[in-house]
Amino acid sequence: MKHFWGIAIFMGYLVSLSGCVEVPAEGSLAPDIGYKNRKQYAVSGLEQNIGDFLSSSSTLPLKFEIINITETNGGEVAALKEELSVVRYKEAIVGNESAEELALKSVVVKQPAITINQNTGKIELLEGNKIPAGEYRFDVQVSNTSGSKVLKDAIVIEFVEFEAPSWSAGMAKPPVIERVAATPNQILFVGYLDGKQVPGNRIDFTKNRSAGFKGTFVDDKPEGELWNVRFPVKYSDTYCSWKVIKNENGAEQVSYVSENFNFVLGIPGSYVIRLYK
C-alpha cells in the first residue's frame, strides 16, 4: 500500500511540474522564418520566379501575400502592379493543335506584372513587364493555422533593364550597353578594333545568330550594324566577327576574328551595344 501511495505522490509531483510548461497551440510560426537570400536581382521584362522561403519549424502549409511594395529611393511602383494579358489553357495541350484549336483551349486573363505564389512564397514576374531599374522592397504576410505575421522588407529585389553577364576573354574590354530611346525597337552594334571604331560592314554576326538574339538585319551603317529586334531579348549567347584589313608589301590582307558575348535587354526601345576587340 505504501508503494502505491509513493507512486501516486510522484506522479502528482510530475503533473505539478508540467503545469509550468506552456503547451503549444495547434500550428505555429517560427520566429526565424524568412527568405534564404533576402537581396535578389532581376532583369526587367523577363519571366522569372525569385526567392526561396525558409519555413524553419513553422506548421505547414503556409500562405503568402504581398502587403506593400516600396522603392528604396522613393521611385514609382505602378509598373509592378500593371496588369498584363496572360494566356491560360483550360484543357491539356497535345502538341499538334492548329491555331484555331489552341484558341478554343485557352483564355486570356489579366494579371499583375508581379505577384507572389500563395503556396511557396516565390515572387513571380510576367514576361513583358516594364519595371524600371531600381531596388524594390516587399512586405510579405505569412499565415498558417496559428495566425499571421508581416515580414517588413522580407525580400529586396534590384532590377536592371539590361546587362552583359559574360563575354569572351579575347575582347579588349566588356561590351557596353546603352538605352538611347524609347522607340523604335532596334540595336545598333558598334564595333571597335584596336581602339578605333569601324563601320558596320566591318563587323558581322554568324549564320547561327538565331541561337543568340532574335532580330532582323536592317543595314550596315557608317557607325555600325543596325538590327530590328523583338523584346524582351532573352539571354543570348551571340558571336560577332571583326573584319581585319592589313596592308603588307602593298597588298591588302583580309582576315576575320570572332568573339562571343551574352547579353539581355528587358525594356523595349533603341539600344547601342559597343563591342571592343
How far is the first residue's CA from the last residue's CA?
A: 99 Å
Mean pLDDT comes to: 89
Low-confidence stretches: 1-18
Radius of gyration: 29 Å
How many β-strand stretches? 21
Describe the global form: elongated
Helix amount = 10-25%
Strand content: over 45%
Annotation field: number of helices: 3
Structural category: mainly beta
Main sheet specs: 6 strands, mixed
What does this structure look like?
By secondary structure, the protein is mainly β. It has three helices and 21 strands. The chain has helices spanning 2-18, 78-81, 99-105, and strands at residues 34-35, 39-43, 48-50, 53-54, 63-71, 83-89, 106-112, 114-116, 123-125, 134-144, 147-160, 162-167, 173-181, 186-193, 196-198, 203-205, 215-221, 224-229, 233-248, 251-265, 270-276. The longest helix has 17 residues, at 2-18. The radius of gyration is 29 Å and the shape is elongated. The termini are far apart. A hairpin with a 2-residue loop joins strand 14 and strand 15 (196-198).
Topology at a glance:
Layout: H1 2-18, E1 34-35, E2 39-43, E3 48-50, E4 53-54, E5 63-71, H2 78-81, E6 83-89, H3 99-105, E7 106-112, E8 114-116, E9 123-125, E10 134-144, E11 147-160, E12 162-167, E13 173-181, E14 186-193, E15 196-198, E16 203-205, E17 215-221, E18 224-229, E19 233-248, E20 251-265, E21 270-276
Parallel strand pairs: 2-11, 14-21
Antiparallel strand pairs: 1-4, 3-9, 5-10, 6-7, 8-9, 10-11, 12-20, 13-21, 14-15, 14-18, 16-19, 17-18, 19-20
